[in-house]
Design a protein that fits this description.
Elements (H helix, E strand, L loop, with lengths): L1 E5 L6 H10 L5 E4 L10 H10 L3 E2 L3 H7 L8 H13 L2 H8 L4 E4 L4 E4 L25 E3 L7 E5 L2 E5 L13 E7 L4 E7 L3 H10 L5 H8 L2
Parallel strand pairs: 1-2, 2-3, 5-6, 6-8
Antiparallel strand pairs: 1-9, 4-5, 7-8, 9-10
């Protein structure tokens, strides 16, 4: 069984479309949170995941939107949260609000969290991946850092597919991964997308210019 794995889409439907087009044939799709925020295409990203029945957990930006809180975000991130809150439909916000902080999928073989199994808001970079993060699952999927990476241990895999909508590892290409549950292996992928189009949408939405500028640098 092959599972497409995405995370940190952050309202970037242009990048998400590129990822979905480039993704090899998979049996299912999962998302480790932060569907919205930063970029302005929040509703379209929610709809894309819902249309594909993607099993998804709540990210910190998702939570900030539905809890009507900026969650201490700096001004640019806070602006993205506020824009999502203003533009998402009631139905889209209800879908976000119903997302759990943690979920298991595929008969318990995969666990999804946003930041860390013990704290959904804790940054867990690939150099901190270890077998102690695993419980009974074969694969633990994390997001939040926007940094792609995975490690395989005797008890299973710890992985972060990287960010679809705002990579922060110096590579501006959208990131995703494919998890093969038959071979317990991960393939990491990157794909180019039309950043100019996203920047134009950011400008049209009167969001901070830095949100578009950082996309070109992968930061």
């Amino acid at each position: 069984m092959k599972v497409g794995v995405v995370s940190d889409i952050h309202g970037n439907r242009v990048a998400l479309d590129a990822v979905l087009s480039a993704m090899p044939a998979v049996d299912s799709l999962v998302c480790a949170g932060d569907v919205v925020g930063y970029n302005p295409m929040h509703g379209a990203c929610v709809d894309a995941l819902r249309e594909r029945s993607a099993q998804t957990v709540m990210g910190n930006h998702d939570r900030a939107v539905v809890e009507d809180s900026s969650f201490g975000f700096h001004s640019a991130a806070g602006a993205g949260v506020e824009h999502a809150r203003e533009t998402l439909t009631d139905d889209q916000q209800a879908w976000l609000a119903a997302l759990p902080d943690e979920r298991t999928a595929f008969d318990g073989r995969v666990k999804l969290v946003h930041g860390h199994p013990a704290d959904p808001d804790r940054y867990t970079y690939p150099d901190a991946f270890g077998p102690e993060l695993l419980d009974d699952e074969d694969a633990l999927v994390l997001g939040h850092t926007h940094v792609q990476g995975h490690e395989r241990f005797e008890d299973g895999i710890v992985m972060n597919p990287g960010s679809v909508g705002q990579p922060r590892d110096g590579n501006p290409q959208a990131a995703f991964a494919v998890l093969d549950l038959d071979t317990l292996s991960v393939t990491e992928h990157r794909v180019e997308y039309d950043i100019d189009r996203v920047q134009a949408a950011i400008e049209e939405a009167n969001l901070p210019a830095e949100l578009g500028e950082r996309l070109y640098e992968g930061r």
